[in-house]
Amino acid sequence: MSYPQTTPPGRFGIRNVGDGPVDHAATMPVAGLCNPFTGAPSLAPLAVLVDHIAGFANHARRPDGHWTVSSELSMEFAPDAQTILAADPATPVLAESRAVGAAGTTSLSICDLTHGGTEIGLATVRTFYIEAAVHVPGAFEQPVESTEPLPTALADLMAVEIAETGGDAVVLRQLAHAAVNNTLGAVHGGVAAAGLELVASAALNVGRPQDPLHTASLRINYLRRLIGGGRSHYTATPLHVGRSSGVAEAQGIGDDGRVALTARLTAYRR
């Protein structure tokens, strides 16, 4: 199953390839998806795939009359994950997810990431259930096809632009664009997670283009909805940058100046 380009899954070329009562699977192409700050191939867009298919495992067992909203997302990558993707960008990444344990107020799912049969990482998504949600057209209802050509650069796919770089701060502005929104009208959780990864990894790699630190883990908390446009942006500052490892903190800030998402990224030198 594929999605229209006016939805986040369709915009990133995600295709559902499995949909069972226990397991769910989807693929996503990764060719040409580079960090706009560094120009290096990026693991960030895999957050869109993770939030989609791991979130789907939670969504599939929602109670009647409820909808799902991501509250936490984490990704853990093998040390050579970025190298593997860069060596064969034409092969899509496969994500297979399943729900973990019983669902209560929240639901947890786990997701395995593979590339050409090689394991490159794993991820988890926790969602909570909300009642009587008001939806806008999106990935799960009333989608429409776009008549505009789909962009190829990651920044354009995400509808983001560099706002600031240099020193300790790295800032990426989140523009308003309906095609990167979820069914509740906020920026898709995976797109927002990708924005946090981009700024955090860029903050750790300022001044070290020949000896980069590669993302190993990303852990995100969703605090409230992030609406694109206005002063909405992602920003990150390094907490530690060593010879072989680094840790950065990132935030997604809404137009009202309030923190909507917070994250911590850990990276290592290969």
UniProtKB/TrEMBL annotation:
Keywords: Hydrolase. It comes from the Bacteria. CDD domains: PaaI_thioesterase. The keyword Hydrolase applies. SUPFAM superfamilies: Thioesterase/thiol ester dehydrase-isomerase. Signal peptide: none annotated. Residues 185-259 form the Thioesterase domain. InterPro entries: HotDog_dom_sf, PAAI_dom, Thioestr_dom. The keyword Hydrolase applies. GO terms for molecular function: acyl-CoA hydrolase activity. This is Phenylacetic acid degradation protein. It comes from Mycolicibacterium bacteremicum (Mycobacterium bacteremicum).
